[in-house]
Structures are given as structure tokens and as C-alpha cells.
Amino acid sequence: MKEQILVTIEEVWRQHRTALEDAIAEAIDALENLLRLDEYHRHGHDPKQLGRALGPLASTNLDLGSLSRMLGQGGRSRKMAPERVERIEQLIPALGEMKELWSNTALDAASIELSEDEDEVRERAEAYLNRLASVFRALRITQLEVRSKYDSQAHDAVFAHFDWRELGPGEIQSSPPFVVLVRMDGDARPQLQRLVSLLDTGMPLKLVALRSSVRDAPAGLKIETLPLAMRDVHFVQSCSVAPEFEQQVLACLAAPRPGVISLLCPRGDEAQATFESRAERAVRSRAFPICIYDPDRDPSFVMGFDLSSNPSPELPWTMETLSGQDANGQAIELEQPFAFAQFAASEPEFACELTNPPSDSDVLVPLSDYLGFSRRQRLGKLPFLSVLDESGAIVRKVVSPTLVRQSSERIRLWRMLQEISGIDNPHVKRGQTTAQNELRAQHEAELQSLRRELENDVARREKAAVVSAVHKLVARLTGIDPSSN
Amino acid sequence: MISMLAEESLLEICAIETHSLDEYESEQPRWCKGCGDHGVLASLQRVLRKNNLEPENVVSVSGIGCSSRLPHYLKTYGFHGIHGRALPIATGVRLARPELPVIAIMGDGDCFSIGGNHWLHAIRYNVNALVLVLDNEVYALTKMQASPTTPDGWKTNTTPRGTYLHPLNPLSAVMGMTNVSFVAQTATWLPAHLDETIEKAWDHHGLSFVRILQRCPVFMPKAFGEGGLNFPVLFLENDDGIPVHPLLLKRGRAQAHDHRDINEAQRIALAVDPAPMGLIYQNPEVPAYEEIRWQRKDRPDRATFLQRLDSALDRYTVS
Amino acid sequence: MSGSRRVRLPEHTVEIVSDAGEGAQKAAIAFAQVCAKAGNGLWTVEIIPSEIRPPPHTTGSASGNRIRLAERDRVTNAGNEANVVLAFNEMALLSRLEAGSLAHDVLVLIDDQWATHEVEKHRISYREVLDTFRARGATIIEVPMERETLRHAEDAQQGKNMFAVGLLCALYSKDLDVLDDVIRVIFKTKAPEVIELAVRLAAAGYQYGVANFKECFEIEAHPTDVPKVAMNGNTALALGAISAGFELCSMYPITPATSASHALSEIFEDFGGFVHQAEDEIAAIGVALGASYAGMTALTITSGPGMALKTEFQGLAVMTETPLVIVDVQRGGPSTGLPTKIEQSDLLHALYGAPGDAPKVVIAPSTIEECYYILSVARKIAEEFRMLVIVLSDANLATGQQLFDRPDVSETPRRAPLDLTPVPPGALPYDWDPTTGLSERRIPGQPGGMGVTTSLNHDRNGKACYDAERNQRGHSMRSRKLAALQQSLQPPRVHGAPEGDLLLVGWGSTRGSIEEAVDTARSAGLEVSSVHIQFLSPLPPGLSDIFSNFRKVITVELNYSDDWNDPLITKENRRYGQLAWILRAATLHDIDCFAKVPGRPYMPVEILGEAKRILEEQSVVENPRERLIASEGAT
Prior knowledge:
The structure holds 3 protein chains of 3 kinds. Chain B is an alpha/beta fold. Chain B has helices at residues 2-12, 37-50, 70-73, 86-96, 108-114, 116-125, 170-175, 191-203, 223-228, 262-269, 289-296, 302-314, and strands at residues 59-62, 77-80, 102-107, 129-135, 182-187, 207-213, 233-237, 252-256, 275-282, 317-318. Chain B has one domain (15-314): Thiamin diphosphate (ThDP)-binding fold, Pyr/PP domains (Rossmann fold), CATH 3.40.50. In chain C, helix 1 runs parallel beside helix 5, helix 2 crosses helix 3 (120-136) and helix 8 (233-243) crosses helix 9. Chain C folds into 3 domains: 5-219, Pyruvate-ferredoxin oxidoreductase, PFOR, domain III (Pyruvate-ferredoxin Oxidoreductase, domain 3); 229-411, 3-Layer(aba) Sandwich (Rossmann fold); 494-626, 3-Layer(aba) Sandwich (Rossmann fold), CATH 3.40.50.920. Chain C is built from 21 helices and 23 strands.
């Protein structure tokens, strides 16, 4: 997948580069038109030019010299000032050079791997971005010239110090990006720190963080929480099992701001199919949650942070069913939460964290319960997981403290992600409860009033019925019809 | 792409300041006191300023009539043409310069009577333009003749004993035309509503047909229930429609309306009493005629142009 | 060509006619191409049935072509009465007699199947028509076209025309191999067996002619290295519009202008333009005007009735000084008139149709070649002078085909880019130069140039005004632009001698016939000359001087004038032809006119006949003694 994603990135980059070249070509065209127009304003009424414009029929009917003199009488007030002509004449070859330069530039000039030498990376990035900036500077000047709005006094200063910081969001969005590859396997923490410090510069880079393992450093900054600290960075953590994976990556590349793409990728020689199933489990277990943070989607953080690509994002974890044989060889099915530890059980680098249980099964507690125990409650207990061994039997494995800690952290991280994405947090819950209560109360009240009405109605009818019955009786007995009064 | 970048960058940095309202006014308007045309002019100036448009990049086109004097007072490139023919001229401008927004201003006689043929076909072309019809239900400039929208029984100089026919309903006529993409109605005595309607119409991509009811204080002082005081209206309400401010509800009630549903729109367009105010119909997907034409044509450079001309002549060459 | 006598001739006119749908037109095209390749000059005219679905075997159904071929490379008109006619049936043949287009001693080649046809009516009419022709002096050759065609094909309808071409090629001593090539090209999109059949039939016709014609013609040809094109005037206008750099043509369908828009529609988009079909004639010119106002000078093409509808907009173009080009392909009027036939009767309308005083430029191409080049002139003048330019073409130019030198595309004028330069502060929108009336045009988008362009009378600042002085000034400024243009026009060239007894003045497509008549007259010693006017508004200088050198001046034009011999017509009430009216007023000469409305071009002999008649009259008037002798006979 790593290869695939780089191919995608290269294609996007190339498209943007072509668009840039086209924009430069258009600008050159527009400027050349200006010069052509000026030429016409200066010489358009010369007899020869008039003759060319009128065509061969002119010579039989018209005296071009006389026509030229007459048309030339009116002052040619639209000529360009000489400084302007000079500016344009210098701008055109400059643009031409830029176009040439860019058409010979490939992605490797626009990408670099983040290693220890941060400064080198920073310099390369800055140089590239400033090259881009010089193109946009020229394009902006062209636009001003085309609209005849370039004013030396005002604009020379503005354009004198034009670097990447002056670029507008539209310009960043349409530029071929500078891509930094960050390999996170191994010692992730320093890499993450370098990544953050690159983002701190404010440069609109696209950082692609690749890792094949989910083994975290014990404590410290988790990459998923980057958006909280850096509100202006478009963040995507995803992998190919996400249904909209390509779109998510493309959106990050096209965003008019710095972007971080955190990817899970295959180990060295891992087969694609194996990787895909591993990735799917990593996502499902929340070991590698798919997070999108798009600052442009909404001014409020919670609306920009999106967990919807994860399975059952409203739940802390999904359940998994293990089918195998128990100790007696009977076929059983066991349901247990599929969380980080369960995923780790199938990852080779966590093999040392799972050990065989002691014979005393009393001390064994399912991990999911254990994680909910207080320190006191945990004393003397051992957390275990049920896993399938090679023969298909369901066996129990004790989970090491390291893995327990990491599981706990992961669950807390997932919980936090849920809260900050607005899926589930106390405020939301309270709101829901209040609303439900109100609704119930309303409902009750309605029911009550309906019941009362009904009762009143029944009472009324009864009374009416009694009254009419009495009337009838009276009539029968006395022969007088009381209703005729 | 380059024009998008240009807009942005120019606005951001390159000293294109925002414009003031009087930059869009070219001379003191000479309409009668109390004429609704003043309000429409102000609305237009506001929408131009809000969108920060350069006055030289806007074209306004009109026919003949009181309202058609508007281009004289709006500081844009204005074309005050001939009676009933604003829409073909507007179409020509759009076909030639699709980057320039165009406003067409007409009166009821100008658009619905002599300009009727162009009006109906313009809907079908769906040229991207703001089309305002200032409907005062009379020919005012030529001193009070009946127009197609003059109400029942009204006495004018050509109908001294009252009009003969029911007035034409322009909303339902437009709703019945192929490719209709934006229909709205508002009134000059509802200035906030007028502003919002014109803004919404401006943002629409396609032909934005807006009928603006307006009372002529000189020839039709009693029209529209004394200029709106006594004129039943129904405000069409929708999240994406024209906002109905609470104050408006003094003039009439509000009703939810789905302006994306053509059948509902056609039904409501038939309503006359109360008159429906607001966004009656909008379909942003209808392509504009000038886009269709521009997309299909090529823009060859000179060398290719001459080469193709040579090939064209080859067809007729005898060798 | 064994056995047959070969007659060398400088030119010949041949007509090919059949029922509609039998392919006479295709036969004519093939024959014309053979002649063109050989190096003959050509002029062809379509013979079109007057209705869409006429009943077959009637005079109304005749369809075909007239081809005039000559040894000189320049044939300028459709010629006089035809020398040869090849007819598929006698009714088609009769229709040409009724049209007056056959010489009395015409050579008739006719399909003889009707002589022994099962339908008695046909047998009778065949005999009668041929008798009529013989009585007039025609030579009839009856050819078994149907029978011979059936020897090679199953359906005579699909092939007789190729047999006919073969016959004609034999008659005119053309090369069968060339015919073979031409047929293969014409039929190149058809199935191979169709092509082979066509070629076989043509060969059969050719062999028949070689074997049976006692006399053949040879019109010498001079092949030239200069590449030539053959097209009709409407196609020339279309290609000319592209060459002139137009990007928008706005139109409404009307005969006979529409085929120009068709030709444009096919290819315009490849050149950056498009054809807009409007909802009516008024919208068509409205769109063109709007586009011109916005900086893209546009074109609208129409005919007489459309011009009438456009007049209000013409006035608007003049009042607002917006450049605009209208092409009027004139046809028979008044009202619907003769939609497919030529007339030159929109001149006065073009000059004065719009209400009020609306001075505009009016020019007329006189050949199909000029149709290609004239739009560049029209556009440039429209833009430089901020004027409306009307180009008057006609149905004859529109449908006839002429060979002319292939235009050199490298001479195509370069399209000027859109001018968005700022308007200098303080400049006025109608900054009329006091001498010439010229002013600089403003285009939307030019910074600082905002303001209203109004149809009301206005002053230099563009604002509406109503007082006497400024109304006068507006008029005089718009008018003097015509004078300014006129000052740069050259006097027209006189064809013939600069002085003489009779001067023929023409405009539009009559040039070829007029000049041929003059040439014939001059070779007979008659002092006739002609002059052709291209600019009708403004008129070129020097006309009065030219006219003064001739004893009599008449216009030759295809529009209506009263006949002097008609009862009630006097000097005071006689209505003259349209150019004659103009020239009389402009030059104060007593110019007469030869102006009729036959719905077809004049033949050179007709014009020659009129010239001779006039010269006769002149000499009789001059010499009373001779007149006496002439009337009393020789003593």
C-alpha cells in the first residue's frame, strides 16, 4: 500500500504541476496580447497595417494613404506608458523560464524523507515553496497588468518581498505540494517531534507519516491528537480499508493548508491480502482509528473532526466471536470485546506480552473487566484474553502490564476521540436525557389531559342518559311529554 | 484557474479596496418622489458593493420606460436600448464576454408585451443574468396606458372604461417555460425583502427572473392596496430561500415552500391573492446557454487557425 | 474521335435537366469538375424546382444545372442562351424553353424512351415538344439513355445521370480518364460496386457519344498553376467571415441567406466562433449588437423581409455608434415575393430604411470572389468608424458557382486582441473629432469608461439631451463620418473608354453581364462603356465627372422601374430603378435605367440589346435626315 499511495500522490502532484504550467502559459498569452494591442495602438493606422486589415479588396476602392492620415488624426491616447511596456517585456521571458523550469521538475524535487537533519528538510521545503511563490508573484503581477491596475508606487514594494507566506489559500490549493515522508516505525517519538516542529514553521507542507506497527511509546504525544494542538493542519489518519480512502488522501493533498497523512502500511514483504486483513483488524480494534480533521469543513472543531469511517463509532469497542474448541474439544463460541489487546495478540512484536496462565484460574479475570477495576481491586488478579491457538482451540493468555497499560491508554484515547468529535460526551448525554425527560413529561401530560377529558365526557353522557331516561319515565307515567314545555 | 487565483489575490493584497456605495452612482436619479425605482437602484448598488465588484466589470441593459432609465444612474457600463429588446442585447453581451455579469432591467410593458417573445425564449436560453422586471402594472413613461398586468377593471388612457381582460400572470408563464431556473417575487415597499431577493438572485447561476412589484405614485397611487399597505401577501419560507424577518409578518403570513419542487412552484405561481413573495423556484443545475456554446468552441492559436482555414479551402479547391 | 467533325469554340453554355431526384445536378457537378481540371473557366447556376415536391414529369419538376465553360479562365456571368441542353424528359426540356434560356438553334440531347413509352400522354407530349423545338430551328439528337443504362444497371434512375455525363464528355472532347478520376472522388464514400457501376456507365455514355455524335465541340482549356477554388457566394461569405475574424454570427433562417449560416455552422466552432440562431430576426440583430457593444464585433445575415424587421435596431446601432455588420442576401420582393430568385431591390431600404437620419455604410460585392474578401473590409470600417455596415449580396451570387484564385491564407488579417486599456481620465464617450466625426470606442471592462450608452439623442458626454443645438450636432457628427470615409475612396474605374455615347452603371452581381455586353459592343465599334459601383454609401468621388463624358448614362439593375412605353407614365411620375434614383439625386444628371424584375440574372445579350436600342435612338435623334430616310425607305 505504501507504494500505491505514493503513486497516487505523484499523480496528483503531476496534475497540479501541469495546471501550473497552463496558468503560466495563459499568463504569457495575456501579456503578449497586451503588447500586440499596444502595437496596434501605435501603428494600427499605418497604411500597410490598414491594408492588411482591410484585405485585398481595399486596394481597388480605397486610398490607403489618405485613410491612414485621417484615422491617425485622432490622438492615440491608449498607448501604454514606456515603463509599462518595459515591465511587460521583461515579465514575459521570466514567465517563459519559469514554465521551462517547472516542466522539467519531477516529484523528487518536491519531496524528501524526514531524517535527523531537520534543517536540511526545512531548507529544501522553504526553497521549493519560494520557487512556487515566485510563480504566483509573477501571475499576480500579470493579472494586475492585464487589468491595467499595476501601480509602481503601490505595488513595487508589495512584490519586492514576496515569499511563500504571501500565498493565498487558493494558490496553495492549486500548487503542486511539497511532500515530506516521515517513517514512524522504530523510534516514533523523535520523528513525531520533528514532524511537529516542521508544522510549527507554518509552511504548507504535506507530511506523510508511514508506519507498519502500532507499538506506541509508553507515554507521550499520540499522533491522533495532533488536530487539538494544531487547528490549522488538515489531518488524515486512514488506510486502504476505509471506503473513502482515496478521497480522504486527495482532500488532504488539495487542502489550502499544511496537511498530515498518517498511514498504516504493509511490513517489508507482507502480502497485500494479509495486510488488508491486518489493517481491517487494526481499525476495528481501535488500534489504528480512522480520523479525519478538516478545518475547512466547519469553523467549529467538533464538526470538523470526523470518526465516521470507523465501524460503530458510537461504541467503545465492537464484539468479536471466537469459534473454536474448548479444553474438552467441544465446539464453542465465545464472545469478547475486540479491543487493542486482542489485536496485539496477533501482532508478532507483542508476542512477548502474552504468557500462559498459571494453573490457578481463580486469579484470572477477563481483561475487559480488569480494565474497569480500581488499583485495589486489581491486587492479586491477572487479566487474560481468550485467543485461538494454532490447533483451533480457544486458550487463555495472560496479558502483561505493559500491554494492559497500552490497552488502557488506547481505550482512553478512543473515548477522547469520541468526545471531541461530538459522538459521545457528558454534555451530549445530558442533553439527550433532558430532552427525553421533557418529551416524556409532555407525553404524560397529554395523556393525563386526554384521560380527564374522557372521564368528563363519560360522566356527562351518563348524566345525560340518566336525565333522558327519567324524562321518558315521567312521560310514560303521566302521559305528559316533558320535552314539549 | 487563473481567473480564480486572480480574484483572490487581487482582493487579498493588491490594493483593490472595497468600494463605497456612491462609487456605483453616476448621477442624481430623476424619478418621481416616492417611485419604487429608487429602492431598486439602492439595492443594486448594495449588492455590487457587497460583492466588491469593479464598476467597469458590470454591464446593465435596459429597454424603454421609467425603470429603463436605471442604467443612467448606476455607474456601470450601461446600455439603454430600445423598447422590448433588452434581453437580446443582454444575451449578446453574455455570449461575447461571459466573464462580465449582466443586469437586465425592464418594465412590465417592455418585458411582457413588446418584449414577450424575447422574454420567453430567454428563460429557455437560461442566460446567466439578473433579470429584474419592475412591474407597476401600467405604462407610466408614456402617461398611463394599460399594460398586460394592469388589474381588472382599471381605468387608463387606452381603457377609459376599464380594462377588458384579466391581467397576465408572469410568474406562471415563466414557470411553464422549459429550463426555468430561478423565479422570485418581491416588492419595493418591502426593502429588506427586496435586498435579500436581489442578493439571492445575484448569487444564482442562470437566468434569475425577479418580478418586483412597485407602485407608480403618479399614475397608479392606489395600486397594490395603496402601495402595499393593504395588499395581501404570502411570504414563502425555506431555509435556503429568502429570509422572512418577523417584522414582515405584519404584512402577511408566512408559509413553508419547497422551491426545489417544480410542481409546488407552479402551483404557488398561480396564486394571485395573496401574492406569493420570496423564492418561488430555484434549480441551480440548469446549464447556461453561453456556457454550452463556449464549451464547444475551440480557441486555436494563429498557426492552427490558418491551417484549418487552409483545410476548409481545400474542400473547394479544384486541382 | 473517329468519324466526327470537331468544332473549336471559345465558349459554350450547356444545361442539364431532369426530374427532381434523377441526379442531373450530380452529373453537372461531375462535368464541371472535368472542365475545371482541364483548365476551362466556369460559371454554374443551379436550376431549382420551384416547389419542394413537384409532381414528376412536369415543367415544375425540372432540376439541374447550367454550366458555362470557356477557354478564358475568367467567366464572369452565367451567359446568354444555352447552346446545348441535355434533358431526361421533354417536360424538363420544355421548362427551359419557357424560362427563355435556350438559343433557338440549341442542340438537344434527349432520352428517347418517351417516344415509345407505354403512357400515351408522354408519347404525345414528347412528339409535340420536339416538334416545337424543330420549328424553332433546334437540332435534336435522341439518345437511348434508358435502354443503354439498363444494359449495365438494374435501376435506370440510379445511373442514367452518369451515362449522361459520359455523353457530354464525348460531346466536348474531354478526357475519359479525367472523368473516371472525378467520379471516383465524388462517390468516394459509396460502396465499391456503386463506384464501379458509375464509372462503367460513364464510359458507356462516352463510347456511345464517340460512336454516334457527328459533330463534337472543343472548348480549349488553359491549365494553370494558380490553384483555384469553386464555391458559391454564400459559402464565400461564410469563409470570408472566418477570415475576417468574426467570432459570432447571429441569424434567423431565411431564404436565400440561410446556406451561409449552414456553411458557417459546420466549421465555425473550430475557428473559435459560433452561429447563434435567435428566436426571430429582431433578436438576431439584438444579439449581434449586444456582442458588438461588448467588444466582439458581430455579424448577422438575412434577406429582404429580415432587413425590414431589423430596421429599428439598425437605427440603434447608428445612434449609439456601435460597430455592426449586416449581410443582406437580396431576393425578389415585395413582401414574400420570390424567395429563391435574384433581385437588387433592397438598396433604398438599406440606405434609408431606419427611422430618422441614420447614415450608414452600404457596400455590394460584384463577384463571388468579392464575397470572400468583402467582410474584412466591412468589419474594419465598422470598427474604425463606429458605423453600421450593410453588405448587399443577392440570390444569384448566393447560389451560383464561380472559379476564382484560391485565397492566400497567410494574408488573413490578424484578429486584434480585446482592448481593456483604461480610458484616460477626462475622456468623453463621444469624443467627436470636429472634422471627421470619429471617436474612440469604449468597451465594457475598460477601467474608467463607465457610463450609459443611450438610444436617446446625446451629447459628447453620452448623456441624453433634448435641445436643438445638440440634436443638430449629433446628427452632423454621425453624418460627417460618411464624408470622412468618402474622402478616402477612389473613383471607380471605367470599363471601356473614358468617354463615349453610352455609359452603363451597375452595382452588385450584374457586373459580369454588363462588362461582357460592353466588350461585345465595343468589338462591334459601339462607343459603350461601363462603370461598377461598390460603395453605395458613401458614393465614391468623381461620378459626376465620369458621367459628363458620355452622351447618355443609364443604370443596369435588377429592380423595378416603370416602362416609358406604359400608358400614363410621364416624366413626372415615372418610377426609376433604385440606383438611378440615388445617382440622379447625387449628380443631377438625367440618368435613365434598364431596370426589370425577371427573377434571374440579365444575359449579356439583353443588356447589349438595350444598349443598341439606345444608341439607335440617339443616332436617329441626332440626324433628322437619316431618320426621314429610315422611315420612308431608300429612295
